[in-house]
Specification:
There is one protein chain. By secondary structure, the chain is an alpha/beta fold. The chain folds into 3 domains: 90 residues, Aminopeptidase, CATH 3.40.630; 36 residues, no CATH class; 201 residues, Rossmann fold (3-Layer(aba) Sandwich), CATH 3.40.50.620. 39% of the residues lie in helices and 21% in strands. The chain has 12 helices and 14 strands. Helix 4 packs across helix 7, helix 7 packs across helix 8 and helix 9 packs antiparallel against helix 10. It is globular.
Amino acid sequence: MAYSISRVSPSDQRALRQVDALLQQEGIQRDGNLDYIAAMYDEDYRVIATGSCFGNTLRCFAVSHEHQGEGLLNQVITHLIEVQHERGNLSLFLYTKIASAKFFGDLGFYEIARVDGTLVFMENRRDGFNKYLKRLEKTRTEGRSAALVMNANPFTLGHQYLAETAAAGCDTLHLFVVSEDASLVPFSVRKELVRRGTAHLPNVVLHDSGPYIISSATFPSYFLKDEAKVIEGHARLDLEIFKKIAAALNVTARFVGEEPTSQVTGLYNKIMAEELPKAGIECRIIPRKADGGQAISASAVRKALQEGDMDTFRRLVPETTAAWFESEEAAPVLHSIRNAGNVIHY
């Protein structure tokens, strides 16, 4: 029998309740980061299958127990892939439970990495991740190589201090800027500010993280029951991928900034410090640069910009960041920050 599939409007509370009930049958909750929810309806307009998107990821799948074995999930995924293609997203990613990985493999998705007992990260290109690693290999150098990953939302004196400390501790520093546009400062600006703020460090090689270094926005929290498990799952999956990146670049150390105010990043760093040495990668946690006894943070910089406190702003950022934000080019970003509500992110 042919069932209808359509987008669920954010205001359609009846359909959303049914979607939530289906997801709960699978032991998962609706993800907070979704930009498209699809529902399949039976002849009585009851939701019998669902799946969703966020960015170029697919997530939150469930089929009613009464209709399992009818191939409905296949139809939902086909619908979501068509939606993604209409958006111009040809490279797609999904997270799934270990038990479902073979099913998605049969639909043309390929495993990138897994956390045993938790989840598998997959993409719809057979050689997508390998091509990414091969591009990185072209920047591989002799001597001691290290890595640093930052969002830099925006680039502060704290970020600059971390980059300088890391660069001084190796022959080549591979600095990855998180590519995903889930921040108030767009990726293109964040990367440019990192480039300008590290231009005096000749051994820094700048990289886009691409879709493989996973941010908290793309990581699916709906699989896991509590926040600590979410953070741990995210960290372990990120580290499985990072180990492969490190092998491609001959990286033997990863530098991370200490996070005294963030429980999330604190736990993340703890797991990193435990797991990376097992793979032969040193994990060096660098104390944060302080201003007046307070660790310099991008949140404090955004808060100063939001409040128009330019004295505090200039005190917390390098001249290169200050010059950009004081240019005409910065107007749209400043508008976003000033109208953002809460700009303090932990």
